[in-house]
Amino acid sequence: MTTYRLQVNGKVHAVDQDADTPLLYVLRNDLELNGAKFGCGLGQCGSCTVLLDGKPAMSCMVPVSVVGQRPVRTVEGLGNATTPGVLQQAFIDEQAAQCGYCIAGMLMQATALLEKTPAPTDAQIRAHMSPNLCRCGTHMRILRAVRRAANTLAAKGTP
């Protein structure tokens, strides 16, 4: 076991783990950040998506040893039930969640898009969100939620 210092949602955490332990397990088991979900364990569904240095990463595929000093952001870093972030509120308003299992990953994927491309086209939204799967079939609501959030941010003048 090795001690790793991870910056997660703006706070530094020390965790003792084996080098090949997936970041997802560290987030859920050590830090009790349960937003990211274990879906497939193969990097094919996106339910475990977090932002690693501002880029979407499937945390089931990222060994804790490669995180280093790069900041990690999880859905818990976007807002909470009483004060949801703009994107979270858009997902609520569009009723984008059915079972909700994929939503944390979807939110993180969409966050990366809107931070990089504040006014994405519908084609850009579709392409960027394509790695994340929703088995309930709420893809159209998810796309509307991302569009709503982009419009809200643009109206506020926030990138």
TrEMBL record:
GO terms for molecular function: 2 iron, 2 sulfur cluster binding; metal ion binding; oxidoreductase activity. InterPro entries: 2Fe-2S-bd, 2Fe-2S-bd_dom_sf, 2Fe-2S_ferredoxin-like_sf, 2Fe-2S_ferredoxin-type, 2Fe2S_fd_BS, Beta-grasp_dom_sf, Diverse_Oxidoreductases. Pfam families: Fer2, Fer2_2. SUPFAM superfamilies: 2Fe-2S ferredoxin-like (SSF54292), CO dehydrogenase ISP C-domain like (SSF47741). Residues 2-78 form the 2Fe-2S ferredoxin-type domain. Keywords: 2Fe-2S, Iron, Iron-sulfur, Metal-binding, Oxidoreductase. This is Aerobic-type carbon monoxide dehydrogenase small subunit (CoxS/CutS family). The lineage of its organism: Bacteria, Pseudomonadati, Pseudomonadota, Betaproteobacteria, Burkholderiales.
